[in-house]
Amino acid sequence: MKRQPRSSPRSGKPRRTVSIIGTGSYTPEKVLTNEDLSKMVDTSDEWITTRTGIKERRMAAPDEYTSDMATKAALSAIEQAGISAEEIDLILVATATPDMLFPATACLVQNRIGATKAACLDVSAACAGFLFAVEIAQQFITSHTYETVLVIGAEKLTSITNWNDRNTCVLFGDGAGAAILRHRGGAHGVIATHVGSDGQYADILFMPGGGCRTPITCENADQHLQTIHMSGKDVYKQAVTAMLAASKKVLDQAGLTIDDIACVIPHQANLRIIEAIADRLKIPIERFYVNLDRYGNTSAAAVAIALDEANRSGRIKAGDYVLMVVFGGGLTWASTVIEW
Ligand code: UT7
Fold first, then answer.
1. What's the whole-model pTM score?
2. Whose Cα sits closest to atom 16 in ligand 1?
């Protein structure tokens, strides 16, 4: 049985359902292939393809920033939703690569799109950030605090990549995805959500430099402390375990089984992780939407870009149950079941 709407503690009105009424995405023009990377570090197309499934990724121009990509994805979502920017009450940008530590990248997007009445903040939950932001948006809408929320996942990961480290530089790419959330009468929309974290594993995927603990100095920069550090194998194991548990938990909350799900949109980090989850959930891999071969891992943007592609290509249709499940540094994980 699906969760019944409760009354909102804030307004006393019945809790509202929340739907995604428009999606958008943007990826930079420049393509960096496995072949290109094999000229930069000791790697090969064969190694990257068999170990990750990635064939190429996009790279933002030197003067193209997270806010620029986020703005393009947002405008596309706004257009599809058929709303005006002035209707947006809240902008959430999930990112690990904000333009600056402050102000929030969401404020920069607000200014660019003319969402003059919106409150703005960034969400820091690494690769899981987009679904954390969807959960926050949902809470604000069901409680009648806000009507319309713009949620964006956007990253310029190539700006924090150590191009001498073959363990990480082959994995990441740049891009942005966006969604407009609002109550839509007669639709179930978001049926269930689950978010979780485990800080004891903070040091298996992190960027040590750039915060107050290790400020940017020439010495720290020489040691690449302002780039991604990752224990790949540890992250791999945690990712499979956490995404599997998060998928089961949200299906349980929704009162659905995996057979009810028309499309699974997972975090796009590694095809082997996705295959392991498909195997353990006992569903064919074809039921998963995968685009990591073209974009690599774009962290918070990954599931948002995949959602937009699945939506625009007709891979997901009205009435379909869609499961999204993500995992990232923190550790953080999240899952959402939506009736599209
Ligand atoms: O967004 C969430 C964050 N990230 C993830 O979800 C990533 C999770 N982890 C993974 O996807 C995988 O662990 C990796 C793709 C990062 C690595 O795959 P792996 O099968 O776990 O390989 P490994 O780290 O155990 O390395 C195996 C070998 C090593 O050589 P030796 O020690 O066996 O001689 C590495 O040095 O492969 C070597 N290697 C490479 N060789 C060619 C590592 N990177 C490369 C490379 N090209 N790019």
1. 0.95
2. 232
Domains 19-187 and 190-339 fall in the same CATH topology: yes
Q: pLDDT tens digits, residue range 224-262?
A: 999 999 999 999 999 999 999 999 999 999 999 999 999
Average pLDDT over every residue of 266-278: 98
- Calpha distance 21→326 (Å, rounded): 21
Q: Within 6 Å (CB) of ligand 1, which residues are found?
A: 43, 47-48, 51-52, 127, 166-167, 170, 205, 232-233, 235-236, 239, 269-270, 297, 299, 327-328
CATH T-level assignment (fold) for domain 190-339: Peroxisomal Thiolase; Chain A, domain 1 (3.40.47)
Using CA atoms of 293, 298, 301, 306 in order, give the dihedral in degrees to the nearest 10: 10
Measured CA to CA, the distance from residue 340 to residue 317 in angstroms comes to: 6
Architecture in CATH of 19-187: 3-Layer(aba) Sandwich (3.40)
Q: Which atom of ligand 1 is nearest to the CA of 37?
A: 48
Q: Which atom of ligand 1 is nearest to the CA of 43?
A: 47
